[in-house]
From TrEMBL:
Subcellular location: Cell membrane
UniProt-recorded name of the protein: Uncharacterized protein LOC101507158
InterPro entries: DVL, DVL/RTFL_small_peptides
GO biological process: negative regulation of cell population proliferation; shoot system development
Family label: Belongs to the DVL/RTFL small polypeptides family.
Organism, scientific name: Cicer arietinum
One Gene Ontology cellular component annotation held by this UniProt entry: plasma membrane
Lineage, opening ranks: Eukaryota, Viridiplantae, Streptophyta, Embryophyta, Tracheophyta
Pfam family, one: DVL
The UniProt record lists the keyword Membrane: yes
Keywords carried by this UniProt record: Cell membrane, Developmental protein, Membrane, Transmembrane, Transmembrane helix
Domain of life: Eukaryota
PANTHER family (UniProt xref): OS01G0525701 PROTEIN (PTHR47855), SMALL POLYPEPTIDE DEVIL 1-RELATED (PTHR47855:SF3)
Amino acid sequence: MSSDNSNMRASKKKVSCKKLGGYLKEQKGRLYIIRRCVVMLLCWHD
């Protein structure tokens, strides 16, 4: 029973790492878009 429990923990850990990776990728994309917008606003001359 204890080995079954540790397997469950390991699989949960994998899922959480995958979710975390996806979350970080999403935040990285958002930061890139925000940075591009800020640069455009700063460099924009009328």
